[in-house]
């Protein structure tokens, strides 16, 4: 399937369009966000569960977004559409592979950077008789690790970005969809990076504003951001693949666009 080249400003439109779409049925989309946020905040296991089934849940939100935009009513149960539709759960869960690989790579890099910093800083501290060298070496390691972590995160998300709605809504093969998703993000870097950057800004601002609420504040931030992300994936997919047979997996009775 061929993808269109789009303007960088489309990344902003995906955010604003998501908010407009959510406001058409706010209770349903916010409850979906709350469910995902609650799962993610379960101690120890929550984060692991979200890594594995997160693509399937975001795919469910994308499905609900299409329903809502097509003048059919989005429903809370559509969050789990991948698990109720025959043959969909396995392919959607396969989309977690980049996240797992990225997490393992980050852990290895963290061990290398921290281990090297502790070793070098420890030797310097012993020779100088102070802890300043140790602290300085850890800071230097962070300067290396932060851009590497950002690059890994952007790569992982690029592999999933278009693949999630394509597998969910088109029934695309997961590995091929991830490969093309990465290629299409590289082909539209402005829109992709603006979308991600704006999400980060919104997350930071909401986090600061709601930080006074502690745990509840964190829950609210995730509740608000989750449907924006899911609807944004749908809008990005719809725009970039407009004119293609993107309605192949539409609900029965829905006519495909010519």
A few lines on this structure:
The chain has 258 residues and is an all-alpha fold. The protein has helices at residues 10-23, 26-40, 45-69, 81-84, 89-94, 97-128, 132-161, 163-170, 174-187, 189-210, 215-240.
Task: Tell me what the structure shows.
The protein is an all-alpha fold. It has one domain (about 10-240). The protein is built from 11 helices and no strands. The chain has helices spanning about 10-25, 25-40, 45-70, 80-85, 90-95, 95-130, 130-160, 165-170, 175-185, 190-210, 215-240. The radius of gyration is 21 Å and the shape is globular. Residues about 245-250 and about 250-258 have low confidence and may be disordered.
Tally of strands: 0
Mean pLDDT: 87
Biggest sheet layout: none
* Range of strand content: under 5%
Radius of gyration: 21 Å
- Overall structural class, as computed from helix and strand content, comes to mainly alpha
> How many alpha or pi helices?
11
Helix content: over 70%
Features:
258 residues, mainly alpha, 11 helices, disordered C terminus
What is the fold's blueprint, element by element?
Blueprint: H1 10-23, H2 26-40, H3 45-69, H4 81-84, H5 89-94, H6 97-128, H7 132-161, H8 163-170, H9 174-187, H10 189-210, H11 215-240
Helix pairs in contact: 1-10, 1-11, 2-3, 2-11, 3-8, 3-11, 6-7, 7-9, 8-9, 10-11
């Amino acid at each position: 399937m061929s993808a269109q080249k789009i303007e960088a400003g489309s990344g902003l439109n995906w955010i604003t369009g998501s908010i407009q779409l959510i406001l058409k049925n706010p209770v349903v989309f916010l409850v979906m966000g709350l469910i995902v946020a609650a799962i993610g905040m379960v101690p120890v296991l929550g984060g692991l569960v979200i890594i594995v089934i997160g693509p399937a849940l975001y795919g469910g939100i994308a499905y609900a977004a299409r329903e809502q935009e097509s003048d059919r009513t989005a429903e809370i149960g559509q969050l789990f559409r991948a698990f109720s539709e025959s043959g969909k759960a396995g392919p959607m869960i396969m989309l977690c592979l980049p996240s797992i690989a990225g997490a393992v790579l980050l852990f290895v890099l963290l061990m290398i950077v921290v281990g090297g910093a502790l070793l070098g800083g420890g030797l310097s501290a012993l020779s100088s008789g102070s802890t300043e060298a140790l602290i300085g070496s850890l800071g230097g390691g962070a300067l290396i690790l932060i851009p590497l972590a950002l690059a890994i995160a952007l790569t992982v998300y690029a592999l999933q970005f278009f693949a999630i709605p394509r597998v969910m809504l088109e029934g695309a093969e997961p590995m091929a969809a991830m490969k093309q998703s990465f290629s299409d993000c590289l082909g539209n870097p402005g829109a992709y990076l603006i979308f991600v950057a704006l999400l980060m800004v919104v997350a930071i601002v909401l986090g600061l504003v709601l930080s006074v609420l502690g745990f509840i504040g964190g829950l609210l931030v995730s509740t608000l951001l989750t449907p924006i992300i899911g609807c944004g994936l749908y809008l990005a997919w719809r725009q970039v693949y407009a004119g293609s047979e993107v309605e192949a997996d539409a609900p029965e009775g829905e006519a495909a666009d010519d």
